[in-house]
Amino acid sequence: MILALTTYSLSGVKFEMTIFDRLAPIYDHLSRPVIPDLEKQVGKKIHLRENDRILDVGGGTGRLMRIISKIQPKTRRFVVDRSKNMLKRTSSDDHAIIGSASALPFESYKFDVVFSIDALHHFEKIEKSLEEMIRVLRHEGEIIILELEADNPLTRMVEKGERLLGEDSSFYEREKIIRVFHDKGFEVDIEKINFFQYILHAKR
Question: Which of 43, 68, 108, 203 is the most buried (most CB within 10 A)?
Answer without folding.
Answer: 68
